[in-house]
User: Which sequence fits this backbone?
């Protein structure tokens, strides 16, 4: 048994005034007390007098198969099983160093990440994996290289059934084209509304949620009409920039669709050529995107944090803090930004009964960062300690 005491604390839902002491036994939290309450005499106490204690972070949108290099997703068909395994290992290690103790992978190749999830029973010292397997996409559509190309209702039915049989954690569907796949259009829908609704209904019949990749406004509107559970990116891009109406925001809010805006870019990174061209053509900017997400959050839209790690040099594994920092830059208060990567992320990922909170009986996934993250989330860049299920992995 051991304990952590920190000057500041965030329990996943709110700031803990005066800091906290968290006691761990095995892989579980067995005590959460105010900082001035003495730790049990029979356990080791680790004291952090100028740091923040919070639950381990949950990155809700990663690609563990992506090596964070140019054309990372396009090159996947050329990777051997051993090469994919090495990339996944490196990605998990980098996520952990950023304080991430749970990752939700939203697109792999040959079920490599899903298989890794299933092989990790009892493994300690690495983030827990949730996985979708290859995303469902149209023939030649965005991320076709991952192997999820489908056409027509029969193939879509088979695709959902296979994912249910393999016990994926969520179904990922590509509603629009994407910046990382040449020949696809980020502003165009890849499926008909009937096909999208079929995927959602079929997934729900199997007890699975659906999250949709959607960059362009038409695809975002279609995803809402199809009653998806989540939307990734949700940029509402048009030829003239971002266009998110009050009505669309209200529908996102009222349908409780979880929006992962995939903010977060490595500081100083240069946009890949295709993204740079899109930005120049439409006038979109990162700052405008941050403000749009802040406006959505203020209106009550359910926001979770994920950074699309692995897809490019600008989005490498290990910079998840930038996704949360991007929310604060868009006007979201620090505690509200923190919940998007802790309790709210856990709830959206259907693991809120054991992760995302400093609570007795929950997994002892813990993060300590230098400084006061409850007043400035940029403190997340300075990781001091990470524990996964009671195992101190970084200190």
Assistant:
């Amino acid at each position: 048994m051991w304990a952590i005491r920190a000057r500041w604390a965030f329990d996943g839902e709110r700031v803990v005034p005066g800091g906290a002491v968290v006691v761990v036994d095995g892989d579980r939290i067995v005590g959460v007390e105010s900082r001035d309450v003495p730790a049990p005499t029979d356990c080791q106490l680790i004291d952090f007098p100028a740091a923040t204690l919070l639950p381990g972070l949950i990155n809700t949108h990663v690609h563990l198969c992506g090596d964070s290099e140019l054309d990372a997703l396009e090159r996947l068909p050329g990777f051997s099983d051993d090469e994919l395994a090495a990339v996944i290992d490196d990605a998990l290690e980098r996520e952990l160093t950023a304080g991430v103790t749970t990752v939700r992978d939203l697109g792999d190749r040959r079920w490599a990440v899903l298989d890794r999830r299933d092989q990790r029973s009892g493994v300690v010292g690495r983030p827990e994996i949730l996985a979708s397997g290859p995303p469902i996409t149209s023939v030649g559509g965005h991320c076709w290289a991952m192997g999820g190309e489908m056409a027509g209702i029969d193939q879509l039915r088979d695709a959902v059934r296979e994912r249910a049989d393999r016990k994926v954690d969520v179904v990922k569907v590509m509603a629009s084209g994407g910046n990382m796949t040449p020949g696809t259009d980020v502003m165009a829908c890849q499926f008909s509304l009937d096909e999208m609704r079929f995927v959602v209904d079929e997934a729900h019949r199997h007890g699975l949620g659906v999250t949709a990749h959607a960059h362009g406004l038409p695809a975002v509107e279609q995803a809402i009409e199809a009653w998806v559970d989540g939307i990734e990116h949700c940029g509402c891009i048009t030829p003239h920039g971002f266009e998110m109406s009050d009505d669309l925001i209200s529908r996102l809010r009222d349908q409780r669709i979880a929006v992962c805006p995939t903010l977060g870019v490595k500081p100083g990174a240069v946009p890949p050529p295709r993204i740079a061209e899109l930005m120049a053509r439409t006038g979109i900017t990162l700052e405008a995107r941050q403000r749009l997400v802040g406006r959505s959050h203020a209106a009550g839209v359910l926001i979770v944090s994920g950074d699309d790690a692995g897809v490019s040099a600008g989005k490498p594994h290990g910079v998840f803090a930038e996704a949360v920092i991007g929310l604060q830059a868009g006007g979201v208060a620090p505690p509200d930004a923190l919940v998007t990567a802790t309790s709210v992320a856990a709830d959206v990922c259907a693991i809120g009964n054991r992760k995302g909170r400093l609570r007795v009986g929950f997994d002892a996934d813990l993060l300590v960062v230098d400084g006061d993250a409850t007043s400035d989330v940029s403190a997340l860049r300075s990781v001091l300690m990470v524990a996964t299920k009671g195992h101190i992995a970084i200190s």
Observations:
- The mean pLDDT is 96.
